[in-house]
Amino acid sequence: MSEIPASMKAMVLTGHGGIDKLEYQNIPVPKPAAGQVLVQVTATAKNNTDRKAREGLYPTKKGEMTSFQMGGKPTLTFPRIQGADIAGKVVAVGEGVSEARIGERGLQDFNIYANDRTDINLTPDYYGHGADGGYAEYVALPSDQFHHIPNPELADAELAAMGMCSYQTAYHMLTSANVQAGERVLVTGASGGVGTALIQLCRIIGAVPYALSQKDKAQPLLDLGAEAVLDRSNMSTFVDRVKKETGGKPLDAVMDLVGGEMTDIFIDAMIFDMNARSTYPRLSIAGASGGNISEILWTRIYLYQVQIFGVSHGTREEANQLMTWIRDGHLKPVLHGAFKLSELHRAEEYFVNRGGNYLGKIVIVPDAQWQAHGQAFALEEGG
Q: Enoyl reductase (ER) domain: from which residue to which, for each copy (predicted)?
């Protein structure tokens, strides 16, 4: 640890509230415990969960304001360093971890798993929420969850943009709904991190993705692999437009990141011709950007046998598969741009007020790493 400084810069969340609760501080560098690696952070992807956790927008009851706590009690305590999707380099190891890992460039599986099971994750939590994350110069992480990704064709900022918060959520949406090759899949919120991941993952498994987004983002989404892009600005004609794109066939499954009043319309696009189906209509939901409450007739759900899957995070097996696809070059980063760590307030404002040209992920780069890992991807608004 002699070459590692005693203190570091970090953006520290001091409580629930606005961006004023994020304070740029000088704090001690963590030491890796047994089974951990100390990672020098080079880039961390920004996710919507950062804002929602900070603002207490994970209610499980009406009127509640809290962070999520599926394990039975809140794990977001203060002070906390946010940032889940961490790319960086191993600079020290804890007891039981081979020193051969020092120098490895890698990507973090962001989950805090409750146990060693690889096939299920019932009480999801994550680094940046239940433990400190990557909005800092250094972070201590479980060695078995920091995956070596040597690929020289990927810049560190691009690697962070492929973080598990988006890609694993997307993959778990597909596996939960048992999406198969050849099936027609609607991807809502298609221009965001989970949406762009879904489009790529559909193509990997052989499914056909139809993207719902703004008209000005159509070509980049088509280039990414969307079969067609449906304009979300006029949802009154949505089902007719789906029929036109699919040759009159219903969607097999919907990957819903929107919620609100749109969910009922998405169901319409799956059930308009049950005789044309060979599987049950399936809807995976992992977000509610269009509203946290949807009004749906339960008779529609049970008479049409619509299967609904709530998705939060994913499993170790899925993370391992995704890391393999990244190493093998099957997944492409969709990086919108980078901000310095000291400018996280500006990055948060940009993220909330992002315009029509926004596609993919924003990454946050420690100021000391900016020239090497951030400058090439800088946004005008972010310096």
A: 17-364
Cα separation values, 282 from 7, 151, 211, 278, 290, Å: 50, 36, 16, 12, 19
Class of domain 167-310: alpha beta
Tokens found for residue 43: 């880039």
Whether domain 7-162+334-377 has CATH 3.40.50.1240: no
How many Å from the N-terminal Cα to the C-terminal Cα in the chain? 33
Residue in the structure block whose two tokens are 């969607």: 251
| Every domain of the chain and the residues it spans | 7-162+334-377, 167-310
